[in-house]
User: Fold these one by one.
Assistant:
Number 1:
Amino acid sequence: MTTQTSKKPTPHVLVVDDEYFNFEMLTTALSSSFELSYADSGETCLSSAIASPPDAILLDVCMPGLDGYDTCRLLKNTPETKDIPIVMLSGLESQQELQAGFDAGCDAYVVKPFSMQQLLEKLKSMV
């Protein structure tokens, strides 16, 4: 007879990216450690994060409409979502872009291309 060990539920990470392919790549790399869900825009991210708050958000910077910086600011200024750790993912690596991410309220800024192992460790340390 096996005994049930109290296991913490799998942390939920909301991936926000206008490119579905990026979500598929992240799912392949991270699904053994996290339960992932997808939002294709900043607007969708906001409604999804309020309706079902994730343990962390992976947020693409360059998106049409509401970009990652604006989405991050809105999340950090919304009572229901202000404490959710946000990792911004971007191909933009200048010091100004990095600073803009932290000014918007992100908890980490990861430049593409990135090591999936590094991203996995960063996420695990946040949730």
Number 2:
Amino acid sequence: MASLGAIAAACTTDTEGDAVHEDAPVITYQPCDGIPADAIAQARIDAQAPVRENDTNPTSNSCRYLDSDLYYGVVISARAETVQDIEESGRFQVLSETEIGGHRTLVADFRGGSACTVSVDINPGILEFMIGYSELEDFKTVDAACGRTLEVAKTLAPHFPDHL
């Protein structure tokens, strides 16, 4: 499952190496604390103990759930980015737009074709769900990964915070 770790690391740094901007929103929500274990189970994530990550550049509080079979994982991140940042970034190819839990949501393929992201617009940033895909993982295609990522996000929607 090296690719999930690589994906998580790739998503926690600014692609230009820029410093965090002074006007970046403050993100206090941590998915490991905010999403109850029974909701994770309801989303059919048979995970080992979640791994908490708090990063800067941009600010991101993440929770990685590595499945017990080690070939699948979900990263849920509260990020100091907006859906507009995702749309304008060269890091993602936006595949579709939808609404989950009353929030504008973008479905995108992470640059290089390695992960599907579902970015839910929650003030002041996004709640991002990410599942990787490759020949070595449970999900071999972006469509398969995005289908599962959307399923997880929709299942967890009742537990979305009012504010990140």
Number 3:
Amino acid sequence: MAYYLSAYFSLEFTQSTNGLATIWPASGIFVAALLLAKRVAKLPIIATVAAASLISNIQFGASLIEAAGYTVANIVEGVVITQLVHRGANASRDLDNTGWLMTFLAATVFGSLVSGAVASLLAGQLSLPFFVSWSLTVCLGTLIVVPQSCVARAR
């Protein structure tokens, strides 16, 4: 529900002239959920986020093919970032852990670029402005939300 509401309000209130949201905190919600979840909960989280992404994109005028492409890009992004963080850092998600933060930053940038490429290809939006806008939007959302979620979880 948090992913859907974040996606909905991002699309409703922060759209740029090219139709993309200017920030996509839903990416951060998804990545935080995957990073903080137990292994058995990850597949249900992925399935739920896929449904929420598909629904929210269709609600805001994307065709089924575009919405499916955006959804695959969102899922790939979250999974790539999470896998890179798990493989590249120890289990500590403390914000004073420089190694974890650097791994998280690098994984987020890389995962966002992969997501931008997937969205561009699968949704038929083969333009540099779309790719850059998508990649920066999801990167910013992840970099803002995940650290706050880790701190909140630690308390």
